[in-house]
Amino acid sequence: MVEKKDVVEGWPLETGDYDVGNPQGCVAVVTLGSKMNEEIVGEGAAIAGPLHTENLGIEKLVTNIISNPNLRFLIICGSEVQGHITGETVEALYNNGIDEKTKSIIGSPGAIPFVENLSVEAVERFQEQISIVSMINNENINEISEQISNCTSQDPGAYPEDAIS
Question: Is 116 exposed, middle or buried (0-12, 13-18, 19+ CB in 10 A)?
Answer without folding.
Answer: exposed
